[in-house]
Amino acid sequence: MTSVKQLTSDTMGTIYELTNESGTIVRVSPEGARLLDWVIPIEEGRDIVAGYDSIQGHIDARYYGATIGPVAGRIAGTRFTIDGKEYQTEDNDGGNTLHGGFNGLDTDTWLAETFEDQTKAGVIFTTDRRDGTGGFPGNVRYQVTYTLSNDNALSLTYDAVTDQATLFNPTNHGYFNLTGDTQKAIDTHLVQINANHVAETNEDVTTTGAKTAVAGTKFDFTKEREIGDTLLDDPFLLDHEQEWDLQVTSPDQKVRLTVTTDRPAVVIYTTGTGEVGAAMKTGPMANHGAMAIETQGVPGTEKFQQFGDITLRPETPFHSVTTYRVHF
Ligand code: FUC
């Protein structure tokens, strides 16, 4: 059996708790349609998702575990054009629009609807936005569905419909530390990313439009290796030639996380000085204490056609699935 129940606590507010037969527990919040906890039933329960010890901490810091959008990453110069019409978005990141701007989808309190059956349980989060919110055109309904299955997969399904052409490139900003303790750096985690190229970035982390082969660079994770102390904030261009796109294994090898997505890229962001000392569930965040695994369209796609198309049009509803699976 899998199940979902609604709980309320003073520190976390309303949460939805998903459980499966193996005793895995996933907790999500309507605040930002956010992933709070993913507790693996080993030892006394190992929570592999980094997060604050209160929902207010999450709201203030914004991105931990949250649904990010309408456009994940940076819109360079806070402007984009669709069908010849230019739109202006907010400057919340040194001349660029980061993660949807000041009021990204992470700042919405989403409506929640639960479902459960023998093999899976979950929550459908929905939020509606008016034309022009944050500078993005279209009255848009966004949905994110979290589904926990009995085989320890957590799927995040993104859907959206609009009444006029707009941009949509969502992600989830969950930070992971497979030791369960963000006071420990992730440096000895083993990582494999099935990507032979990264998108090249400028100093301000916007993309240049070029792609770089990973061979011989610090971005080469095509064979499993320790992530080390390198700081990453880079879009890996997924080859999509294997069963999964990315795999992370805990230093004690007791937990392995595989990620499979239909999106063309994954941004790996390893936390640095900006996050050090944050009041996490397990105490103050270490330098390099977690990694965000953000599947998405390649940042800058609105500008660089070679990366694809993130235009959402009325006649083509958006649908995308990323599946995270734990092996323990
Ligand atoms: C990631 C990065 C950013 C940023 C943020 C918290 O997605 O690309 O640089 O600092 O999340």
TrEMBL record:
Reaction catalysed by this enzyme: alpha-D-glucose = beta-D-glucose
Signal sequence extent: none
Pathway: Carbohydrate metabolism; hexose metabolism
Positions annotated to bind beta-D-galactose: 173-175, 233
Active site: 173, 294
E.C. number(s) listed in UniProt: 5.1.3.3
Superkingdom field: Bacteria
Molecular-function annotations in GO: aldose 1-epimerase activity; carbohydrate binding
Keyword Zinc: no
UniProt keyword annotation of Isomerase present: yes
GO BP annotations, alphabetical order: galactose catabolic process via UDP-galactose, Leloir pathway; glucose metabolic process
One GO CC annotation: cytoplasm
Keywords: Carbohydrate metabolism, Isomerase
A Pfam short name: Aldose_epim
Family of the protein in this entry: Belongs to the aldose epimerase family.
Protein name (record): Aldose 1-epimerase
